């Protein structure tokens, strides 16, 4: 019996395969033994539950309605940073994703160099790149957009490449059989086949970038981040509750839009 078959589940007796159970036990023991390294203490965590509820209870205050105009202005700036940074990243990452896909890249050297470039771009978080761009172009939303776009290219290029690598081979062969060239095969067979994954990835990245943009203001890169941090430091819970609620509503709206777009694309292709 091969190793792959021993890991197949469900097994004839309905139980988990023994290699999988053993691996899970080893992983659980490793996590338990290494927990002190990251100061994970279950007793301390359980004892902190009351403090967490006490902090959450302080958010149950009357919102500062006079802050709403400023909040809307800052949230609009955050959304604009998110959309613009993501749009720039889509334009750059799509060709990079094609070059980073095993079944689409011209040769292995281009594949490896592109993969390494994408890994470099996403190696550091947006906050670090925002510091770099703030020192280069000054304070304001521009360094925030640059930081979001730079890191997003690294993630989105990788996601695009992995989506292209799993496209249906038959669709590619059909387009190639009609005499399509190298670029035509990729644009008219690979990209359309991976389009639902592209849309899902873009909407997920928008969700992520919105939350990332919400803290870039901490280093002077625009957005709601500065107000968020200052409200926490000054215990202005009447403003903090409005900021948290606005971020939640925008993220929820993006999630609903993602489901709708993906559903339309998938159903449109099936009809």
What do you see in this structure?
By secondary structure, the protein is an all-alpha fold. It has two domains: 3-58, no CATH class; 66-270, MetI-like (MetI-like fold, Orthogonal Bundle), CATH 1.10.3720.10. It contains 13 helices and no strands. The chain has helices at residues 3-6, 18-34, 42-47, 49-58, 68-99, 108-121, 126-137, 141-165, 169-177, 182-193, 195-216, 225-233, 237-270. Helix 9 runs antiparallel to helix 10 and helix 11 packs antiparallel against helix 13 (237-270). It is globular and about 65 Å long. Its main location: membrane. This is Phosphite transport system permease protein PtxC. It is a multi-pass membrane protein. Residues 75-258 form the ABC transmembrane type-1 domain. InterPro entries: MetI-like, MetI-like_sf, PhnE/PtxC.
Outline the fold blueprint:
Blueprint: H1 3-6, H2 18-34, H3 42-47, H4 49-58, H5 68-99, H6 108-121, H7 126-137, H8 141-165, H9 169-177, H10 182-193, H11 195-216, H12 225-233, H13 237-270
Membrane topology: Multi-pass membrane protein
GO cellular component, one term: plasma membrane
GO molecular function, one term: ABC-type phosphonate transporter activity
- The CATH topology of the largest domain turns out to be MetI-like fold
Report low-confidence residues grouped into runs of 5 or more: none
CATH architectural label of the largest domain: Orthogonal Bundle
- What's the name of the CATH homologous superfamily of the largest domain? MetI-like
First-last Cα distance? 43 Å
- Judging from the principal axes of the Cα atoms, what is the shape? globular
The value of Rg in angstroms is 24 Å
Helix content: over 70%
> From the helix content, strand content and strand pairing, which structural class follows?
mainly alpha
Number of distinct helices: 13
Task: Write down the domain tally.
Answer: 2
How many strand elements?
0
User: Major β-sheet, in short?
Assistant: none
């Amino acid at each position: 019996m091969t190793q792959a078959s021993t890991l197949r589940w469900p097994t004839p007796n309905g139980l988990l395969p023994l290699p999988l159970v053993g691996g899970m036990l080893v992983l659980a023991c490793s996590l338990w033994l290494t927990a002190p390294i990251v100061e994970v203490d279950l007793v301390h965590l359980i004892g902190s539950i009351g403090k967490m509820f006490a902090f959450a209870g302080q958010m149950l205050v009357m919102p500062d309605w006079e802050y709403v105009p400023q909040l809307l202005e800052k949230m609009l700036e955050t959304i604009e940073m998110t959309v613009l940074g993501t749009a720039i990243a889509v334009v750059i990452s799509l060709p990079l994703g094609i070059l980073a896909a095993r079944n689409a890249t011209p040769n292995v050297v281009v594949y490896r160099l592109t993969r390494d470039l994408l890994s470099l771009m996403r190696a550091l978080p947006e906050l670090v790149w925002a510091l770099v761009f703030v020192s280069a172009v000054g304070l304001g939303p521009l360094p925030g957009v640059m930081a979001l776009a730079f890191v997003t290219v690294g993630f989105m290029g990788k996601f695009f490449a992995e989506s292209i690598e799993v496209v249906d081979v038959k669709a590619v062969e059909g387009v190639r059989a009609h005499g399509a060239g190298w670029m035509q095969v990729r644009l008219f067979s690979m990209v359309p086949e991976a389009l639902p994954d592209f849309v899902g990835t873009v909407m997920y990245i928008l969700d992520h970038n919105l939350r990332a943009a919400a803290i870039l203001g901490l280093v002077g890169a625009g957005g709601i981040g500065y107000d968020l941090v200052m409200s926490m430091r000054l215990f202005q819970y009447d403003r903090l509750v409005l900021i948290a609620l606005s971020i939640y509503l925008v993220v929820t709206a993006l999630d609903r839009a993602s489901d709708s777009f993906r559903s339309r694309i998938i159903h449109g292709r099936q009809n």
